[in-house]
C-alpha cells in the first residue's frame, strides 16, 4: 500500500536531520516492509481457522478440539486435521534468534512496570483510534466498544499477567502459551469476518489486524512504555529496552506476528517506526474512533450500587486511567474526543514519580530491591485484576459474532 507522509512530519524530519544528522524515519527497506505488512496476514493459522472454525466442523467443535490439543498435546489428538498440526508445529518451534536469557530479562521489565504497562499501553492504543484500519475491526468485534470495553481490557490484562511470569512463555504447556495460541486463533477468525464485512474497504485499509498493525502493538509493549514511563520515574536502560524488544518479538511469534524484516533491534529504531506511523496517519476513523476512545475510561467508573471502599477504589482507578490518557495520548488526538479531564490522575502520577525513581535507582545496586520491586508490582497488578474480574473467566473466544 502507498503511505503518504504528512508535510508537517516531513518538515520536522528534514529539519532535525539537517541540524543533527539523525533521521527520524526508518530506512527505505523498513518503510517498504511496513507498507507491505499492511496487506499480510497469518497463512498458517488462517488455513486452520478456515478448515475448522469457519468450515464444516463449526466454531463450537473447533474450539473443543483446540482446547483438547492444548490440554493433552497435539500428538495425542488423532483426529486433528493437517492444518492444525501445521499450526502447532509452527507455534511450538522456537526460532533460532530467540535468546532465553533476553526473553526473561524482557519479562522482568514487564514485571517491574506492572499495572503501568497496561495503562500506558492502552492510552497509546486509544491514540491510534484515529485510523479506520484499526478502529473498524475493533468496532465490529465490539470488545473495546460500549459497556464491554473494560471486559476486553481485563482479558488482555490476563494475557499480559501470564506471559511475564518467570519462564512462562518458553515452558511447554504453560497457561501463557495456551492463551497466546487462543489469541492468535481469535485474531485470525476476526480478520476473516471483518474482511468479508461490507464496512471493510480493502483498497483503503489493506488487511484487518495486519502484520504491520500487530507489530505496532509489540512496540506499544516495549519502546512506547520505556519512553513514556520515564516521565513517571521508571528508569529503563537501553539494554533493558533491547531485552523487552526481544521479549515482545517472541510474543509476536506466539500470536502470529512475523515482522523480522522491519522489527527494530534498538530503542532508536523502535521510536523511528512509531514516528513513521504517526507521520502516515490518515485520520479517517470518524465516529468509530470516538466511540472506542470514549468507551474505555468511563468503564472504570463505579457501578451504581457501589458504596464505601469499593466505590473509592473504582474512582481511584477511573482518575488514574484518565490521567494516563491525558499524559500519553497526543493532545490534538485527545481533543477530538469527550474524555474525563484526567487532571487528578496526572497529579497522582507525577506526585509519585520521585518515589518510583528512588526505587529504580536502588534496584540497580541492590538485587534484593529489584526482586522486591518486581514481586510487589505483580502482586498489585494481579490484585487489581482479580478485584475487577471477580468470578469471570476470560474466554479469548474465536466464535463470538460481530456486533453488526
TrEMBL record:
Transmembrane segments: none annotated. It comes from the Bacteria. Coiled coil: none annotated. Residues 110-341 form the ER-bound oxygenase mpaB/mpaB'/Rubber oxygenase catalytic domain. GO terms for molecular function: oxidoreductase activity. This is ER-bound oxygenase mpaB/mpaB'/Rubber oxygenase catalytic domain-containing protein. It comes from Gordonia sihwensis NBRC 108236. The lineage of its organism: Bacteria, Bacillati, Actinomycetota, Actinomycetes, Mycobacteriales.
Amino acid at each position: 500500500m502507498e503511505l503518504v507522509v504528512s508535510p508537517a512530519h516531513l518538515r520536522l524530519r528534514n529539519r532535525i536531520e539537517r541540524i543533527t544528522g539523525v533521521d527520524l524515519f526508518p530506512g527505505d527497506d523498513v518503510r517498504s516492509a511496513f507498507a507491505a505488512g499492511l496487506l499480510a496476514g497469518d497463512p498458517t493459522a488462517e488455513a486452520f481457522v478456515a478448515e475448522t472454525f469457519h468450515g464444516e466442523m463449526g466454531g463450537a467443535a473447533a474450539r473443543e478440539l483446540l482446547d483438547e490439543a492444548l490440554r493433552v498435546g497435539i500428538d495425542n489428538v488423532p483426529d486433528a486435521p493437517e492444518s492444525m498440526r501445521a499450526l502447532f508445529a509452527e507455534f511450538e518451534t522456537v526460532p533460532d534468534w530467540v535468546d532465553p536469557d533476553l526473553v526473561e530479562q524482557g519479562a522482568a521489565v514487564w514485571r517491574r512496570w506492572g499495572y503501568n504497562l497496561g495503562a500506558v499501553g492502552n492510552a497509546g492504543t486509544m491514540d491510534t483510534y484515529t485510523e479506520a484500519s484499526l478502529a473498524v475491526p475493533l468496532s465490529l468485534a465490539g470488545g473495546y466498544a460500549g459497556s464491554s470495553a473494560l471486559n476486553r481490557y481485563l482479558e488482555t490484562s490476563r494475557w499480559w499477567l501470564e506471559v511475564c511470569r518467570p519462564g512462562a512463555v518458553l515452558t511447554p504447556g504453560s497457561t501463557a502459551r495456551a492463551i497466546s495460541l487462543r489469541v492468535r486463533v481469535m485474531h485470525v477468525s476476526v480478520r476473516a469476518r471483518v474482511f468479508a464485512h461490507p464496512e471493510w474497504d480493502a483498497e483503503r485499509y489493506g488487511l484487518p489486524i495486519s502484520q504491520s498493525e500487530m507489530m505496532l502493538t509489540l512496540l506499544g509493549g516495549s519502546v512506547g512504555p520505556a519512553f513514556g514511563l520515564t516521565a513517571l520515574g521508571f528508569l529503563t536502560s537501553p539494554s533493558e529496552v533491547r531485552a523487552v524488544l526481544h521479549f515482545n518479538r517472541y510474543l509476536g511469534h506466539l500470536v502470529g506476528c512475523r515482522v523480522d524484516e522491519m522489527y527494530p533491534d534498538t530503542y532508536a529504531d523502535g521510536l523511528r517506526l512509531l514516528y513513521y506511523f504517526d507521520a502516515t496517519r490518515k485520520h479517517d476513523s470518524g465516529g468509530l474512533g470516538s466511540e472506542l476512545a470514549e468507551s474505555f475510561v468511563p468503564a472504570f467508573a463505579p457501578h451504581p450500587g457501589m458504596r464505601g471502599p469499593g466505590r473509592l477504589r473504582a474512582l481511584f482507578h477511573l482518575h488514574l486511567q484518565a490521567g494516563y490518557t491525558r499524559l500519553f495520548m497526543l493532545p490534538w488526538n485527545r481533543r477530538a474526543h469527550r474524555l474525563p479531564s484526567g487532571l487528578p490522575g496526572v497529579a497522582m502520577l507525577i506526585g509519585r514519580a520521585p518515589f518510583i525513581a528512588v526505587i529504580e535507582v536502588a534496584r540497580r545496586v541492590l538485587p534484593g530491591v529489584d526482586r522486591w520491586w518486581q514481586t510487589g508490582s505483580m502482586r498489585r497488578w494481579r490484585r487489581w485484576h482479580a478485584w475487577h474480574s471477580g468470578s469471570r473467566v476470560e474466554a479469548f473466544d474465536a466464535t463470538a459474532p460481530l456486533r453488526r
